[in-house]
Amino acid sequence: MKNISFSLFSYFFIFISKYIARYFFIYVFGNELLGVNVLFSNIVSMLSLAELGFGVAVTTLLYKPLQEKNIEYIKSIIKFTKKIFYFVAGFMLLAGIFASFFIDSIIKDSPFDPVEIRWFFLLFLASSVVSYFNSDKLILLIADQKQYFEKIVTTIASLTLVVVQIVVSIITRNFYFFLLVQIFITIAQNIFLSRRIVRLYPYLKDRSVLPISHQDLKELRKNMLAMLSHKLGGVGVLYTTNIIISMFIGISEVGLFSNYSLIFWAILALCSQIFDGFTASIGNIWVTESVGTVYLHFKRIMLLNYWIYTTATVCLIVLIQPLIALWLGAEYKIDLPIVVILIINFYFTGTRSVVNSFKNTKGLFWNDRFKPIAEILVNLIVSLVLVNFFGLIGIFLGTTASMLFVVLWVEPHILFKYGLKMPSRLFFVQYFLMFFLTGLLSTVLFFGTILLQNDAIGLLVKLVLCIVVPNAVLYLIYRRNEAYLYLKKVGLSLLTRTRN
Known about the structure:
The protein is an all-alpha fold.
């Protein structure tokens, strides 16, 4: 709960600052450069594939030794982790420099000079590469349920970054300076975090560190191979979308789509502050409790996940178009059918997170290692075929297809078969019933509020209806459910502690 509280606090300030920054970015640099900014962020994220999911694999090895205070083991793991992340940073730098010579070829109708585009990309790359020089210590914080400390530092750094970038952009109107500020702030954040983490764990300064055992190395290699597959799937679905849009539709459309993405990912990030706060605790539950107790906690957290994402989905379908018009202008809106597909993808992405948390903290990377390959193939094939017939919406239907036909089936099956060791049929029935209920509520609220004005008062009325109606319906359905009663008890207990 401490992690969740600090994460929500951090998210609130970063959330507000990003929307202010986006407004000024479009005002100073325009939609085309916004598209380039988003596209390069995605490409650099694709290069992070070199990390192979190593961080997740290492985190699962640290839960038990942290609980047992096995310092020598922890030191060995962290030292080995540091070497890996240094290698990743070097690989990313070399691969990025090579890719920079071809970067302008994926931007359709580019208004920028190829050399200028190349330098923009290299500065983006540098900002990402320097972030890896502190990743080994951050893994220790996460595994030890102390990520709230990192959130405080990240919040301060993010707010500083936004303020300085806005000032520099307005004064210089130079994108190079905009990117240089990001590099300097990232370096400063890393230096400060590194020193503070060493104070928390002074044994990290010890030079006498035993080499990692052969058994642990074998386990890490196995999990890294599996996580490579998972990283491929994540990259294929999340980061190739903007590349395909840039190549087939145009860089301006990347900018338009990114404004919607910013809203979707802001909500996903908000929700992840809650559910990521459970991650280390779930890892501890797997170690200390019976499978029956783990399943009980799974049902409770899953209900909370359903509840939050149902409410968020209803709010999005009703409010996102008028919000875009109010925030940036009506000319930045995209067609409603595309928005509906984006919201469906948002719902699927959010409601899979709890399954993944339980699956990953159990270390079940190897069991579904082929799932991400199928995911990326379905996504790319459907996107590349449908973009020729339906344009922009065809690209997003590729993501929907990969979710429906691969992800939503395989991940729960692996968790239930190899982790919880029970049939998954009941989970699938409940999941798709909840999806149907979310769709029904979204449709009713969308058409029920369509005649309301999109001024400040009208939007406020819509927001209230979008919050009250879904929560009232869900309460009537789940008010006697064990998971709901448990969550209610915990919520009331937290409120009592806060008042006292």
